[in-house]
Amino acid sequence: MRAAFDPADWIDRLGFNTASLPGRSLEHAAREGHRLGLRGIEILAFEGYRHTRGDLAGVWLDRLEDADRDRLLAILEPFDHVAVHAPFWDVAPFAANPAVRAASRQQLLAIIRNCAAIGASTVTTHVIPRVGFALEEFRADVVDFYRRVGDVAADHGMTVTIETGYPQGIDEFASLIVEIGHLAVGANVDVGHLRGLLSEEERRPEALEEAYNALLRRHVRSLGRKIYHTHMHDVHAEGIRDHRECGTGVIDFEALLRELRSAGYHGLMNFELEEPDAAGALERSRARLVRAIEALR
Length: 297
Prior knowledge:
Radius of gyration: 18 Å
Strand order of the largest sheet: 1-2-5-6-7-8-9-12
CATH architecture: Alpha-Beta Barrel
Number of domains: 1
Oligomer: single chain
CATH topology: TIM Barrel
CATH superfamily: Divalent-metal-dependent TIM barrel enzymes
């Protein structure tokens, strides 16, 4: 039986990816996010990278030493929910090169094992395409590896998700999740990663809002109860740019949350922003989602 909708519980599940607060140490980003009222945190299992707004704080979780673990536990202690984002730059778990493939897989499996030591409940991953190959040519390898990943995650009381993006098509993405068929492996619906599915006609400013929200609804419905995690941000009409402050773009968050509620969603909703006013955008995004959640009463 589906649990009754509890707005307070959903608000408690609002969190942030530390990439939303660039140019800060991990400690600083965590303190700032918690001060803004966010009870969930998603840390990067990698460091030394940046996006357009600055350097990103994280930690190489596959190399977690006792001192690192104690430091992380202290940073994460104020939060009710902890998630992890695995590396997706410079990794290739499905590469044709066996050395690269083995190293990437070893790193991901080590990250999952170490996540349990810091109290994380879920790890986000990306399916990285094999260069020059269509998915069907290495699909069996993807399915087999994620079943192995699911076994390791389940052994540690966690889930692993594949983030919206590849395979790009909505039905193709859902089909892969279903074929993997592992209780500990699900989808991370990233609300801005459907931009590539828009036709030229749908990209027109007057058509974009309706077209994009229709894609998002279809994505959620195609996955149903296999949605284990979400990344929240907005999409601007100008340039079709994602990772924008919630409420400043075309996404209808009330409609999105209704779809998630209908799907029986009970995971985290973590903001993943890339804005110049990082803290302000995060605070306003939280306020926008709180209003959308309360509108579901």
